[in-house]
Amino acid sequence: MATPNGLNRYDGFNFVVYKNIRSDSTSLPANVVQTIFEDHNKNLLIGTEHGLCLYVRENDCFFNYMFEKTSPLRGLDCGVAKITEDASGNLWLATNIGLIYFDRTNNLVKQYSYEADKPESLSNNDVQSVLIDKTKRLWVATRNGLNLFIPANNQFMHIHNDLTYNEDLSNTIFLDMAEDREGNIWFASNEGLFCLDYDATLKVNGLVHFKHQINNESSISIDLVLSLLVDHSGKLWVGTDNGGLNLFDSKNGSFRHYRRDDTDSQSLNNEAIQAIYEDRTGNLWIGTYTGGINIARNSGDALIRYQYIPGSSGSLSHNTVTCFLEDRKGKIWIGTDGGGLNLFDRNTNHFTRFNIDNSNLPSNAILCMIEDSSDRMWIGTWSGGLVRFDKETRSFISINTKNSAIKDDNIYAIAEGDKDDLWLGTFEHGLIHYQINENKFTEYTPSNSGLANEMVIKIVKDTKGQLIIGTTISFSANRSI
């Protein structure tokens, strides 16, 4: 876990906090940790505000490249914001003193920085990010423009030219990025949508700029772009802030708009598109700000919106939607804050409601849901504890402070472990490890483990089995349990 106050490691039982100790050269070089990177040999590299270090697992200490006499990085006191590795296993570091290439094979370092009298140098020394794309090109994002590294002559091409409007893009804020199947890189920004333009030889020409034009109805609907998605068929969907959803037509460079229309029941119900998700059948699930659910079906052009309709028992139970779950059979479950659980029937567009009045669901406030490897469905609620749902009998079994040893009835997050167990994020009692067969609960809090905060709001298990634990003040990246 990278934090502004040290590095945190979870070993399966406790949280260990690593901080800088001035008298110890094998401690963390600085308490402000900016990035963590695992290389192809599974070595853990940490970027801090005072340089790069390597975690030495066998000795539980750090090799500080900026301090060690044998290191070519010795004496380079800089903040390392991002780390990436090339095909040869060498590192590229995004720092506040420029771009640093660390040749680990030959123990050599080369620093690339801005030089006023050299236009081919890096555009700015404050490097925010580095990216190696599918064609092995190195992109460098700074606070003053985008750079493409030209390895043949160790120079940089500055990608700040707007091919469409001939504008200076130095101050543009980029918010999201997506790469389509043809290798086009798309950028969402506060000034519209951009696409990287290059020829068959991969020569970059600049950025093609798509922005709203008052007299052109086929232009993008608004310039503030929040989210991008390339679907399974290769279509680019563009979510905007108060401009609705846009579908890009690559053949003619136009946009089809999906906007809110109060006279059309098949239009969007909200125009602030914060998230776009594609399910396994190709339908788009569109998350909006306070507008409920919108679905764009792959079989037609209509946008279907689902909201709570007073007097209609088959409508969505509540307009505040908190979570989605698509189970192994392809059924869509929707959790709400105030309306309980909903099961969506794709054939009838009907919602089956489960709430405190028509079932033994203990709370109408659903915070999270998962389906485990044994096909069991688990639900986290506010004030109702952890709930196990039997999809066959459609019954709920509540595990709460009154009938079990669990100490918190407010479950923000759930993740499955490796041995018939669950990890629960709670409101006041930190992280709880639930061993299902033993009905045993083990609690990890700041007082007994070094967890940063009692309120755990997110738990994600990555592809390597690590738990990523989010509290209200930090995230923890923990090794496999």
Biggest β-sheet: strands ordered side by side in the sheet: 4-5-6-7
Q: Class by helix and strand content?
A: mainly beta
CATH topology of the domain at 1-159: Methylamine Dehydrogenase, Chain H
Q: C-alpha Rg, in Å?
A: 25 Å
β-strand number: 42
Q: How many strands, which pairing sense, and closed or not: the largest β-sheet?
A: 4 strands, antiparallel
**Fraction of residues in β-strands:** over 45%
Report the CATH C-level class of the domain at 1-159. Answer: Mainly Beta
Helical content, roughly? under 10%
Number of helices: 1
Mean pLDDT: 83
Uncertain regions spanning at least 5 consecutive residues: 10-14
Give a structural overview.
- Residues 10-14 have low confidence and may be disordered.
- The chain is flat, with a radius of gyration of 25 Å.
- Helices cover 1% and strands 46% of the residues.
- Among the domains are: 1-159, YVTN repeat-like/Quinoprotein amine dehydrogenase (Methylamine Dehydrogenase, Chain H, 7 Propeller), CATH 2.130.10.10; 167-306, 7 Propeller (Methylamine Dehydrogenase, Chain H), CATH 2.130.10.10.
- The chain contains one helix and 42 strands.
- It is an all-beta fold.
- The two termini are 16 Å apart.
